[in-house]
Design goal:
This protein is mostly beta strands. The protein contains three helices and 19 strands. The protein has a 15-stranded mixed sheet that branches. It is globular.
Length: 328
């Protein structure tokens, strides 16, 4: 398992950080803590595709490739005035994102075979500062727009977000966007897993009823605190199925600690939904209203342009992922 991703970091404090080792890209500040919001998020995908206002406008350029059985790519850049991020890897079905309204058959197959969630989406986020960027103290506001293209149904959705920060210490963000879950079973033979992990093969015909489509809306709130070498985020996401009007909730607390060339991240996640969870004592998939997960990330700055790291449960599969970041 290999995870190559891009991280952007900065800070109000004068303590030593990862970016003291990357002054050309960090402006001698911790770039994570210079994000308008989501300062404690460990990857760009986990920060900027839930709230586009989190895209840093600081000058710089980087490439993100996330590989876990399959590869996904992204680019993030800033001009000093605007910032942009492009990826085929939104944060759906990751520790830091919302659930994608996945059907039970697809979810069970992913869980038992330890597959990450995949889609053909193309996602673009862009941000700009409204006021306060040049001030070290006082109120700052950023705004962003997010665009998601879903080729399976030839449909695009958009949304927006705002972020407010006070002296780069306190921050608050809100975003809202529409999205869709699409699963094409037409003319496919797939594994249908029972709760105990046994499966049978099912073949679907080519009728349109075997093209599943769930439209949903996501609202995301986040509050954060940067203090010295610490960043804290508490976010909650509400996903509304626009067909059934069912609501699903995710609450995430995570913190990152920066010490010299180390970055340590720890998170807790609560999901309230009708989705099943795997009971290790019963060795079965069972209905459970509340699901709880933890996340651990350890990263180390190596040389002038690389950060290596290891992550647990990024894809909510109890998996371990290896990370490498490259700035140029």
């Amino acid at each position: 398992m290999f995870l190559l991703f891009l991280i952007s970091t900065s800070s109000y404090s004068k303590t030593i950080s990862i970016c003291d080792y990357f002054p050309d890209y960090c402006s001698n500040l911790k770039r994570n803590q210079n994000r308008p919001v989501n300062s404690a998020a460990p990857t760009q995908s986990s920060a900027v595709f839930s709230n586009p206002a989190a895209v840093s406008t600081d000058k710089g350029f980087g490439v993100e490739s996330i590989s876990y059985q399959t590869s996904q790519f992204g680019i993030i850049t800033g001009t000093g005035i605007v910032g942009a991020a492009i990826s085929n890897n939104p944060s759906n079905e990751t520790f830091f994102g919302n659930g994608a309204q996945e059907d039970t058959m697809a979810y069970r197959e992913r869980w038992f075979e330890k597959k990450q969630f995949e889609s053909q989406k193309f996602v673009f986020s862009t941000s700009f500062n409204v006021f306060g960027k040049k001030k070290k103290k006082g109120l700052k506001m950023d705004a962003g727009i997010i665009y998601r293209n879903i080729p399976e149904i030839q449909t695009s959705y958009s949304g927006g977000g705002v972020a407010f920060s006070w002296s780069r210490i306190l921050n608050f963000g809100y975003s809202e966007y529409r999205d869709a879950y699409v699963k094409d079973y037409r003319n496919q033979t797939v594994k249908s897993y029972a709760p105990d992990g046994t499966f049978t093969n099912i073949t679907f015909d080519g009728t349109e009823t075997n093209l599943l489509e769930q439209l949903y809306r996501v609202k995301n709130y986040v509050v954060g605190l940067n203090y010295g070498n610490w960043s804290f985020d508490y976010s909650w996401l509400t996903t509304t199925n626009l067909t059934t009007n069912d609501k699903y909730y995710v609450k995430i607390f995570n913190t990152s600690y920066f010490y010299r060339n180390w970055m340590l991240t720890y998170g807790l996640r609560e999901e309230e939904s009708t989705r099943e969870t795997f009971d290790e004592e019963l060795n079965l998939m069972i209905p459970e209203k509340f699901k709880y997960d933890g996340f651990l990330g350890i990263q180390y700055a190596l040389g002038d342009h690389f950060v290596v790291g290891i992550f647990n449960n990024y894809y909510l599969l109890d998996e371990w992922s290896l990370g490498l970041t490259y700035f140029f």
